[in-house]
Amino acid sequence: MADAPKIEVSRRGFLKGAGVTAASTVIESAKAFGREANSALQSVPTVGPGPLPIKLHINGEEHIVTVEPRYTLAETLRDNLGLTGTKVVCDRGSCSACTVWIDKVPALACMTLSVDAVGREITTIEGLSHGDTMHPVQAAFVKHDAMQCGFCTPGMVMSCAALLERNPNPSLADVKHAVSGNLCRCGTYPKVFAATLDVAQHRVASGLVTLSAGREA
Amino acid sequence: MNKFAFVDCKTVDEALGQLGDGATVKAGGIDLLDLMKDDIVFPAKLVNIRNVDSLRGITVSADGLQLGPLSTLSEIADHPEIQRSYSALSDAAGHAATPQVRNMATLGGNIMQRPRCWYFRSTDVDCKKKGGGSDECHAQAGENQYHAIMNNSTCAMVHPSSTAVPLLGMDAQVELTSKRGKRMVLMSNFYVPPEKSVINETVVQPGELITGIFVPAPAPGTRSAYQKYGEKESFDWPIADAGVVLVMDGALCRKASVVLGVAAPTPIRSKAAEAVLTGKTIDEATARAAGKAAMQDATPLSQNGYKVQLFQTAIYRTVLLAAGQMQRDPSAIG
Question: Fewer C-beta neighbours within 10 Å, C or N terminus of chain A?
Fold first, then answer.
C-alpha cells in the first residue's frame, strides 16, 4: 500500500489537462525550490516532494517510516505501520473516525500530514490498551455493547478516553460534547454515553481518578 | 493530493522568505488539505508556519485582546478572559466544526477559509471564482439553498468563517506582514466583495502573512453575543449566524454592531439594524424591528428565501441575548 502510486489521473482530470498541469508544476517547482534552498535560506529544512524518512513517536515507541510529504498521518499509521485501528471514513475531517491524540489532544489523523507529526507524541487506539488488558473505556464499551458495526468505535473511544483524562467526572452533557464530532451511523450514542459515565463513576467511587494512557505510562 | 515540497519554518522571516510562486501557507491545514484532496488547489510547496512560536499566544491587556494567528479555535473558546469580555468570539470559536477540528484549526486559517459553495468545491464545474474560462455563477439558477441572500448577483458564495462575525462586530484589526513591512487592516476592510474581485476573498496579497489579530478593549457597558443556526448540531457550517455587540447604558443602547455571517459573500454589518437599536431601549419590539431592518434589502435566490426569516429571527434573538433579556436560544447551535 505504501508504495502504491498516489497520483491518480482521473478521466475527467486527464481530459481537462489538470493532471498533466499539476505534475509539471511540481517538477518545475522542485528545481526552483532547490535553487532557493541553496541561496539565502539554507537554514530552513525543505523536504519532498519525493519520499523521505521521518521519525514518528507513536504509543511510546519511535518509528522510522519513509513517506512523501502528502501522506496523511492516517495513511502512514495504517499503510506503513499496520496500525489499522485508526479508521478512515470520510478522509475530510467530518466524521472523526480517525481520531488520535497528538500531544494528548484529540486530533484528526486524516487532516494531519505525517511530516507535520514529527516531534509530536501520537497516541492511537492501539496505545490505549496494555497488551491484552483493555483500557477502562474499551472495557466499558464492551460491557455496554456501545457499538454495532464498530467502524466509529476507535475514534469514539479516543474521544471519550481523552475527556476522562481532562475531566475525570464528566456530566452527560460533557460526554455528548466530547463525541459531538464522532459520527456513528448506527446511532449507538446512548450506549457510548453510558459506557463513559460508567467508567467515570467507577473511577470516582474507587478513588482512582487518573487514567493511564499509552504504553509508556 | 498532488505532490508537493514541505518547508517547516520556525520564524516569520523564514516563512516570508519561502513565499512565492506556487507556495501556499499552511497552518492548521484543515481547509487547505480539504481543498487539496478535492483537487481544487495544487500548491507546489507548503510553507508550514505551525511551528512558528511567535505566531502563538493570547494576551489580554487594558488595550485589548492580542491573538496569535495560530491560536486554535479550542484555545479561544476555552480562554476565561475571552469568555468574560469577548464572549461572542469565544462562542463563535467554540461552536465551529467539531472538537477535533477546533483542536487543530487556527484563527488565521479560520478567517482565510475558502468558500464552501459546492460549485466552487467541485471539479465537475468551472465557475468565475476559479479563474478559469467560465463567467458563470452556477448558484444563480442552480442549487442555492445555502447561498447568499444579499449582494449575491455576481457570486452567491457565503464566507464560512464564524469567528469573522464577532471580529467584525468588535472592530478587530488584522496585522499583515510581508518582506516590505507590516500593515494593519480593519476587519471591515479585510474581506473583498465579489464585485471588486471574484477570485480573492480577502485583501491578503501573495507574500503576506497574518501575524496578529487585535481586538480593541470593549467600552464600559459592552455586552456581546453570537448565535449560530444550522441543520446539524455538530460539524456543519451555519445557515445563519449573527453577532451583536451592544454598548449599554442601563437599558438604553448607546452603540450597536449587528453582524450577519452567511448572508452575503462577506460577513457584513447591518447599518439599518444598528440604526434601529442605537439610542433606544432594547426590548422585544426593537429587537424584532432590528431583524426586519437587517433583511430589508435581501434578494433571495430560488431556494433560499427561508434564510430571510431565519436571519430575522437570529438577529432578534441574538440582540435580546446580548442585552441579557433572553437565555441562549435552545434551537441555536451556539
Answer: N
